[in-house]
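Fold this sequence, please.
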Amino acid sequence: MKKVLAKLLAVVMIIGAVMTLTVCGTPSKNDLTVAVGYQFTTFDPALNTEIANSYVISHLYSGLFKKGPGGEVTGDLCESYEVSDDGLTYTFHLVPDALWSDGKAITAHDFEYSYLRALSYGEDNAYALAICEINNYIDGAQEYIEAALSEGAAFDCTTADHSYVGVEAVDDTTLVLRLSTPCGYLTDLMSAPYGWFPVREDFAPQHESMWSFDGGYPTSGAYVLKECNETEKAVLEKNDNYRFADDVTADTITFLCMPDESTRSLAYQSGEVDVTLDMSADATLPYKDTQKLWVMTQPSNYFLLINSSSGGPEWAKDVNVRRALALAIDKADVVSVLGGELYYPVLNGYVPDGIPGEKGSFRSEGDADGYSIVYDPAEARALLAQAGYGEDNPLHITYKYSNSGIHGAVAVKLQQLWKAVGIDVDLQSAESSAFYGQLDQGDFEVAYYGFGFTDSAIQYLNMWTSSTSIAMGITPAVEDPVFDKMVADAYNTVDPAEFNKALHAAEDYLADENVYVIPLFNFNTPALVQDYVKGYTMAGAYPYFAYTTIEK
């Protein structure tokens, strides 16, 4: 009866929209236009690596799990699940009444096909797999990938043997995943708009993705793709078969591609767009104290990396010297030259805001425990003196940065702060295209760095283990077997509370006790929203407009 009423309501809404168009000659009041700063590259979840794609994909698809505005994870198409005692087997039970947009039931077999398809797509999705990590945890995934690559385009995931792969649709509503190693943040991974989202076998062929721009294919989320020109726009239309269609208020969402920021600003000022995303702090400063400014917390950090490895400078091997560098930095002073904490909130821990912890925010949990490194120039001078540095023998360091964006302003401010405690600083800039390559080769003493993972603190921490650096072909900047073991032990921790506790301990060891990294600030991403737009929110790291209304 509930389904019948929902469909009748949808019909009434459609008739009402048609009457509005006929009588008044104006569009529905809940047609939203959003400007984005990029062009689209794919709407195929298995190949997605771009933020602009994610804006759209998060509206088109539902996965087993979803994220709320604070990054909290809840069930979406998953009604319940169990985990084995060893943390290696997950049994997911799908909601029984979920439908694709064309009215066909969403089943566990759809997920089985989607995961096997993502693993066997081919070389084009290697980076996408690395982002969603589906290949890192499913048992037998790497062997399956290698078999698919060996056979090439002839490999068919619908017929090839996958009995050794840890993906099994037991029946229409039961999906079992067998992992090769425990993953304490698996449900977080499964909530992001990447390869964990389901696609339909009869519309999404294995080795091809251009269908994702065609429109009209079935989707599992709040919207379907009505039309798309990947360099210009994507038009989304409400999916009346969506489980929560009664709650969806935006009838259509049009994402316009406007890579030039000044063009987006003008489109906003003229009223051509209702929302403009991907704006800089400078462009939004005139709106700083108004309701038009929407500042979105992004799980990304900006920190200083010290090359404390065997190949780094001798001074960097002394923890007290590293600590002195950190104590000499007034972080509030640094962010003041960038527009202030509204855009760049001071970060006292390495893991940024927006990452889930045990029950809430990982950052909030960590900050509650305290942070020993706060601005103290007198203590910085004392530590430098203990290490043998002073007025007659000043410490000389080289700070490397990219010559683009905000990095030059940060470099100049750091130079001033370090000079104030007696440190001589040479600033060395590099072209942005070459900067990270030089860092990867170990060609630096101190440099800025940043990450933008969205799922777990362990993603940030793991980047500085020796094994990860070597696997990525990077010269390790941190060489500490104790830290390596702390992260490895966390990976093998099944209990969520103990997993979270282990991550906090590893973060403290990395940033507080040993000062291998110096956190500076978090990124907030500003957007501009017209006064008449109400109900916009966040789905994890991405803006979400399904519940938006236009109130002119």
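The first helix runs from residue 2 to 24. Residues 415 and 425 are 6 Å apart (CA to CA).
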